[in-house]
């Protein structure tokens, strides 16, 4: 493959929403000589981005992940690539209710707006729910839905235009047999 890059300042593997947005951000920061590698066809390489729910729920027990989610959602809003929909998680068991209470603690700790709901409060927001089968809910009004394929494509194009980012497809292996292990090695197992 003669056009496959042989050097780069930055190599990003995976052209889903994360990889595409990463090269877009680097381009915005002035980075050049970027390479984006992907094994599938663009714009939809068939990885997790193409079949993800596209919901961005900004509450996580890990502060860095919560802030990354919140900053990502803000970026997508600025790009007009998302819609704020709000989100409700419900509990049908006490164990799940305990987890929602822990999520509320994390939301408070990270400064993210969220509310614990009674079954009747859930019913007010989701009229078709059977409130008799739930113990309560967790509502986060800043949950948003992003068009991940369009957002990724937009950021990848920006990286190409601003920084000359090169996108290369990684060739797939054509062999149907697993490679042989060196003599004396334990047998290979399919994962």
Short description:
By secondary structure, the chain is α/β, with parallel strands linked by helices. The chain has helices at 17-28, 48-51, 63-78, 94-110, 119-125, 148-163, and strands at 10-13, 34-38, 55-56, 82-84, 87-91, 115-117, 136-140, 144-146, 166-169.
Protein architecture, described:
This protein has 191 residues and is of the alpha/beta class. It folds into 2 domains: 1-52 and 147-171, FAD/NAD(P)-binding domain (3-Layer(bba) Sandwich); 55-146, D-Amino Acid Oxidase, Chain A, domain 2. It is built from 6 helices and 9 strands; from the N terminus they run E-H-E-H-E-H-E-E-H-E-H-E-E-H-E. The chain has helices at residues 17-28, 48-51, 63-78, 94-110, 119-125, 148-163, and strands at residues 10-13, 34-38, 55-56, 82-84, 87-91, 115-117, 136-140, 144-146, 166-169. The protein has a 3-stranded parallel beta sheet, with helices on one face. The two termini are 29 Å apart.
């Amino acid at each position: 493959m003669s056009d496959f890059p042989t050097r780069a300042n930055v190599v990003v593997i995976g052209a889903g929403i994360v990889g595409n947005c990463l090269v877009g951000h680097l381009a915005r920061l002035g980075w050049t000589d970027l390479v984006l590698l992907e094994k599938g066809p663009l714009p939809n390489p068939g990885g997790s981005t193409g079949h993800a729910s596209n919901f961005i729920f900004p509450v996580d027990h890990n502060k860095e992940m919560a802030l990354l989610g919140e900053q990502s959602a803000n970026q997508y809003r600025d790009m007009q690539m998302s819609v704020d929909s709000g989100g409700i998680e419900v509990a049908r068991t006490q164990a799940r209710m305990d987890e929602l209470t822990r999520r509320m603690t994390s939301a408070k700790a990270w400064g993210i707006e969220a509310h614990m709901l009674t079954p009747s409060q859930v019913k007010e927001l989701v009229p078709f729910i059977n409130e008799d089968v739930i113990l309560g809910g967790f509502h986060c009004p800043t949950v948003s839905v992003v068009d991940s394929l369009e957002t990724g494509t937009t950021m990848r194009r920006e990286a190409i235009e601003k920084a000359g980012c090169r996108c290369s497809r990684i060739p797939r292996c054509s062999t149907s047999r697993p490679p042989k292990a060196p003599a004396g090695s334990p047998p290979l197992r399919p994962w």
